[in-house]
Structure prediction request, 125 residues.
Amino acid sequence: MSTPYELLGGEAGVRALANELYQVMSQRPEASTIRSMHAKDTADVAEKLFMFLSGWMGGPDLYFQKYGTVCLSSQHAKFAIGRDERDQWLGCMDQALVNINASDEIIDMLKEPVFRLAEMMRNAE
Ligand code: HEM
Prediction:
């Protein structure tokens, strides 16, 4: 069984996904609430998301190697993330996967696990 990391094309593919997520977030009017929570320049968070997804998708655990064990939900605790904000983020991820021409196989494979991850960040109704 190939890992999502391999199916996305390794480092280049996962990095493209992380960068595209924040591109989409900056262009989608319906994601303006969560976009305004992020720094003006998303280069730093895109790099951290790439590092996190690399390990989470079965590639090198770059985020852990650099930051150690970090509870991502506590990193998000300072932001009000309810169902609407969660779904805004998921909408951006769905669009980003399509924009980088991810295969239907990887999109299906990621659907439920990414939803669970986003739900973990939710800290409000
Ligand atoms: C559910 C909706 C989510 C919202 C509204 C959200 C929002 C944010 C915001 C505002 C930041 C800080 C960015 C900055 O400092 O400019 C952040 C950081 C981050 N987010 Fe999210 N996020 C969400 C879900 C996720 C998910 C599902 C993941 C993992 C796949 C994720 C991974 C990260 C990472 C790795 C960071 C950087 C943390 C650090 O500083 O080390 N986020 N997020």
Notes: The domain at 8-121 is CATH 1.10.490.10 (Globin-like). The chain has one domain: 8-121. The pocket of protoporphyrin IX containing FE is lined by residues 34, 37-39, 45, 48-49, 52-53, 72, 75-76, 79, 81, 85-86, 89, 117-118, 121 (CB under 6 Å). Residues 70 and 82 are 21 Å apart (CA to CA).
